[in-house]
Amino acid sequence: METIIYLFLVHYFTIRALAETNEITEKNETKLFDENADIEKPPKLNIKYYYESHCPYCRNFETDHFKQIIEKLHDYLDIQTYPYGNVNRLHLPNNTFEYACQHGPEECYGNKLHACALDVIKNHTAALLFNNCLMDISQENKGSDDKAADKCASNMGYDSNVIKECALGEKGSELFNYYGEETSKHKIRGVPKIWINGSKYERSHDVMGDICKYFLNPIPPCENYDSTKNDEENDK
């Protein structure tokens, strides 16, 4: 009888010990999960990019660098673009403005297309990629015209008519004037110009790599980034 009681007690306390062990393990796993849930992405890096739609240097930058930056880093960047550039603005007596863009009236219209795309396309990353498409070096003429807008909209599933109507109307002029005022705050002469977290950035051949260096802890898109591979792609 004593043997039976003894075996029963051993069995009881063994089961209890295993149960407590499992409970501790589950609590530790829950704690680890909760700690991982609290891990947040680093604060977004603020990028201010000033450009004009027909500037050849801006088009090269858009094609060689900016598209990659938008596609790979958009989750980690607060990108604000200002399609205006080198414009002479004359304030008329009737409280309206007359604009003379560096590359002519076509560029003013191109800038308005960009401004309207940023306003019409509600997904900001998609709007940036649409404007990048307008300026791609593969576009005919200087890009950023109705033909480019139709082509990019068709490829991306948007209605180019809404954007073109905006650019031709009062809303396009209002947006263009807004970007002019924002550009004048930094007294921009010569584009493209970039500010990162409020400081002027001097562009190098590896803009993506330079931006990655701003993050104290490497973000996933930057961990396996190969600047030499990027150079090879740009040389093609």
TrEMBL record:
The keyword NAD does not apply. It is found in: Secreted. Its main location: secreted. It comes from the Eukaryota. Residues 1-19 form the signal peptide. GO terms for molecular function: oxidoreductase activity, acting on a sulfur group of donors, disulfide as acceptor. This is Gamma-interferon-inducible lysosomal thiol reductase. It comes from Pieris brassicae (White butterfly). The lineage of its organism: Eukaryota, Metazoa, Ecdysozoa, Arthropoda, Hexapoda.
